[in-house]
Amino acid sequence: MSVLAGMACLDCVVLSPPMGDGGYLGAPSLRQAPVAVPEIAESLPTFAHLYAPLEAIGLRTSECEVFRDWLVRHDTHRVALYMDAEPPEVAEIGSDPNWKREYVLEERKRQDESDAAVAAGAFRDAIYRVRCSGCEAVFEAPQVERLRAFEAILVTSHTIDDLLARWTPIVTHDSPNAYRLLGLLDTHEPFLEQLLAFFRSHRGHTVQVDLVEGEEH
Ligand SMILES: [Zn+2]
Ligand SMILES: [Zn+2]
Known about the structure:
Elements: E1 6-9, E2 14-15, E3 24-25, E4 35-37, E5 42-44, H1 47-56, H2 62-73, E6 79-82, H3 88-95, H4 99-119, E7 123-132, E8 137-140, E9 145-148, E10 153-155, H5 157-171, E11 178-179, H6 191-201, E12 207-213
Antiparallel strand pairs: 1-2, 1-6, 3-11, 4-5, 7-8, 7-9, 7-12, 10-12
């Protein structure tokens, strides 16, 4: 059985919104420089560092956006990533008899807010698509995902370089930088690796990304 990760603000004694299925994306920090994470025994690139190229290509999942908002609110606090050993503050959360109910209520509130953001047009349940107009090549995500809405973005070579440098070690499972993510960011699904390959082979071409309506299932 693999280990579940968790993140919590030790100052506020609250858990973070979930990332994947008990996973994480980088050290939970908005700094750009790597952060030492005792659980992992080496410095980890931060969430902000790994998420920046995804933002630049419009791959802004609802889950990452919610997590980023949470980090912004706890920016100057002690935010911990833990795996095997929970910090004492997290044990304190679990000792509150109402914590499970509160967590469920919190989840429901997040879901309602997420649905309201879709209704308001800030997010869309859509298919993420990349196109190279020079080669007339198209690559689409295999499923609908809830993403921050945007018009077409022209992806620069600089963005592609950042994306490849920061995400190739993740998709080749060569790093502890991302763990147990779901949906389009699931590193055990082929999507991310195929997306990187598309950008790699069309670097320097006219590459655009946009969102298209998904089919109802
Ligand atoms: Zn806090
Ligand atoms: Zn091309």
